[in-house]
């Protein structure tokens, strides 16, 4: 709720601009049609900067949540109790949801062609899934499996980054879902006792229990390093990621946001909706796939059709498309809330309906989906081309 209020406040600052535009209501139909075709450059400038600032605020929330996760993991390793294990899990859920809410902004920040490779590398480090649990820890029938048992791998963060997705994409050793395996366990039966430090033998650091502790700590450190690095690159004062975005004119920024958010729907949200019982699930052990989806959608909605102030839809879509998009957001959220949690237990009919709504949403945001209306009511929105 704090995140939603922050984003709403940023977009509410644009409400004054929207109020000025209400004068159109007093114009004649011919004047309204002529005015509706005019690109409002000032509003676009204000709104695109507000979107970037909202991304900075969300990254700050994500960084704070990741720091809380690190503290919870440190407490668990210092005093392995069931209560501390539960606290670490709750901290993971909070951090994972905040990160999910930041994903639309991250897609935007790395949209320029020269940055896409960096963006892909960052997201693979933080959000690689599905994860092969036996790559990290002991699994039933394979008592010596996983990095926790492979003493040939020295436990350092640099080595974990080298091992990440080394020979297959399921071989994740960094990021949120590697941490999910460590906290919930390969079979979702993790106990605090499995994090107890063992001091017996000549090389206690080589024991699986102690390596499990160190592996968990290093995964948390890696997440914190990656999120902190991103957050430091974001502010306009850093003149880093923002430089590429703000160098564009307002119209080109709107087009970049539209393209990034359309890609977000196609590549991130749709793939998180399982098509069958055999589909990969993003966070099956933590049962957080549905909540992650809802947080991504909340960000997109606050950007496009916010409860207060002007949104992207008002500048890029006609009023019929705006209404259809708002309705699609509401229907999809209501449908997701009705679904079983974890989402893989939802009815296949519900999942298919959710996919249809996401595809409809992508078409509306891209501007390719038309809403049937009378011809005399159509008011297309045209953006000027930036050179």
What does this structure look like?
The protein is an all-alpha fold. The chain has one domain (40-377): A middle domain of Talin 1, CATH 1.20.1420.20. The chain has helices at residues 2-12, 15-21, 29-36, 41-78, 82-109, 116-127, 157-163, 176-184, 208-233, 241-246, 250-269, 289-304, 312-316, 319-338, 348-366. α1 packs parallel to α12, α4 (41-78) crosses α11 and α12 (289-304) packs antiparallel against α14 (319-338).
Key descriptive features of the protein:
single chain, 387 residues, mainly alpha, A middle domain of Talin 1, 0% strand, globular, Imelysin_sf, signal, Imelysin, Imelysin-like
Overall helicity: 55-70%
Overall average pLDDT:
90
The total number of structural domains is: 1
Measured between the Cα atoms of the first and last residue, the distance is: 40 Å
What is the structure about, briefly put?
By secondary structure, this protein is mainly alpha-helical. It is built from 15 helices and no strands.
Annotate the secondary structure layout:
Elements: H1 2-12, H2 15-21, H3 29-36, H4 41-78, H5 82-109, H6 116-127, H7 157-163, H8 176-184, H9 208-233, H10 241-246, H11 250-269, H12 289-304, H13 312-316, H14 319-338, H15 348-366
Helix pairs in contact: 1-4, 1-12, 4-5, 4-9, 4-11, 5-8, 5-11, 5-12, 8-9, 11-15, 12-14, 14-15
């Amino acid at each position: 709720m704090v995140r939603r209020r922050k984003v709403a406040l940023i977009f509410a600052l644009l409400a004054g601009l929207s109020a000025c535009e209400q004068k159109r209501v007093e114009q004649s139909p011919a004047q309204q049609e002529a005015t509706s075709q005019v690109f409002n450059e000032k509003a676009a400038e204000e709104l695109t900067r507000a979107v970037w600032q909202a991304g900075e605020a969300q990254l700050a929330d994500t960084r704070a949540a990741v720091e809380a996760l690190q503290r919870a993991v440190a407490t668990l390793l210092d005093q392995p109790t069931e209560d501390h294990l539960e606290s670490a899990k709750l901290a993971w859920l909070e951090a994972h949801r905040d990160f999910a809410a930041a994903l639309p902004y991250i897609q935007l920040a790395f949209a320029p062609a020269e940055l896409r490779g960096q963006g892909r590398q960052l997201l693979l480090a933080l959000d690689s899934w599905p994860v092969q649990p036996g790559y990290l820890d002991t699994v039933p029938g394979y008592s010596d499996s996983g990095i926790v048992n492979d003493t040939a791998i020295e436990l350092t963060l640099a080595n974990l980054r080298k091992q990440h997705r080394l020979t297959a994409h399921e071989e994740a050793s960094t990021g949120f879902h590697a941490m999910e395996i460590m906290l919930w366990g390969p079979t979702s039966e993790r106990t605090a006792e499995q994090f107890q430090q063992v001091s017996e033998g000549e090389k206690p650091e080589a024991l699986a229990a102690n390596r499990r502790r160190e592996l968990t700590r290093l995964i948390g450190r890696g997440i914190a390093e990656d999120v902190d690095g991103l957050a430091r690159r974001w502010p306009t004062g850093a003149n880093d990621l923002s430089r590429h975005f703000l160098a564009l004119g307002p119209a080109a920024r709107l087009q970049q946001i539209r393209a990034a958010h359309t890609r977000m729907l196609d590549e991130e949200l749709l793939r998180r909706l399982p098509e069958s019982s055999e589909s990969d699930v993003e966070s099956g052990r933590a049962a957080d796939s549905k909540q992650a989806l809802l947080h991504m959608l909340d960000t997109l909605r606050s950007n496009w059709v916010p409860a207060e102030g002007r949104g992207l839809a008002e500048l890029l879509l006609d009023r019929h498309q705006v209404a259809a998009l708002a309705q699609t957001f509401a229907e999809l959220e209501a449908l997701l809330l009705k679904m079983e949690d974890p989402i893989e237990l939802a009815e296949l009919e519900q999942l298919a309906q959710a996919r249809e709504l996401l595809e409809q949403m992508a078409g509306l945001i891209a501007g390719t989906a038309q809403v049937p209306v009378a011809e005399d009511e159509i008011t297309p929105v045209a953006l000027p081309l930036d050179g």
